[in-house]
Design brief:
Blueprint lengths: L1 E6 L2 E7 L6 E4 L4 E2 L12 E4 L5 E2 L12 E6 L17 E2 L5 E4 L12 E3 L5 E5 L11 E4 L3 E5 L11 E4 L4 H8 L3 E4 L1
Parallel strand pairs: 2-4, 3-5, 4-6, 5-7, 6-9, 7-10, 9-11, 10-12, 11-13, 12-14, 14-15
Antiparallel strand pairs: 1-2, 7-8
Length: about 180
């Protein structure tokens, strides 16, 4: 059973009893409100369409089962029981505006492995947005301008691979902090 409450295009609360390998696809949402997913401990993967613009403070904080977050077009079927999708089958959304991830948005998502963000003109990621994401391995972001407030990747592993635009601020960040990066 999945229940979520909306206020217009804002997702205010997400409550779910999910099967072990279930993923959630949400369309038409522009904003994930503060603490919206705090009671979603069984959430393994979540997909938003290209309408998403804001992930507010602590939106996914402590979602320990979350492995995969994507804002884009996704495959229709899973590749394995482990909920890991083939990145070649995921199309990054084209978002001509801005995208914002506020502080602590994904903090303590200990099993989060992959984050795919939309391609946009301006991306803002606030301090500690991904702090404590100790399993984070792949971060896909093809934005033109990126703004950080402090280090959004505190307490994350050193072997994160950033898939970024060449000569972008995120590429410079990865290079300066010893992270691996790949240009798309």
């Amino acid at each position: 059973m999945t229940l979520f409450m909306q206020n217009g295009n804002k997702l205010t609360h997400f409550i779910s009893t999910l099967d072990k390998n279930e993923s959630v696809h949400l369309n038409g949402i522009t904003t994930v409100c503060e603490n919206a997913f705090t009671s979603s401990n069984d959430l393994k993967s979540i997909f938003f369409d290209g309408n998403l613009r804001y992930i507010n403070k602590s939106a996914f904080e402590g979602c320990e089962s979350l492995k995969f977050f994507c804002c884009g077009k996704t495959p229709e079927t899973k590749n394995s029981e482990n909920e890991i999708y083939n990145l070649k089958e995921v199309t990054v959304s084209l978002n001509s505006d801005s995208f914002t991830i506020q502080t602590l948005a994904f903090s303590a998502c200990k099993n989060l492995q992959t984050v795919i963000l939309p391609s946009c003109k301006t991306l803002t990621i606030e301090k500690d947005a991904f702090s404590g994401c100790e399993s984070l391995r792949t971060f896909v972001c093809e934005c033109d301008e990126i703004s950080f407030t402090g280090n959004p990747f505190e307490e994350c592993p050193e072997n994160i691979t950033f898939i970024v635009k060449q000569n972008s601020k995120l590429e410079r960040f990865a290079r300066e902090n010893g992270y691996r990066f790949i240009n798309e």
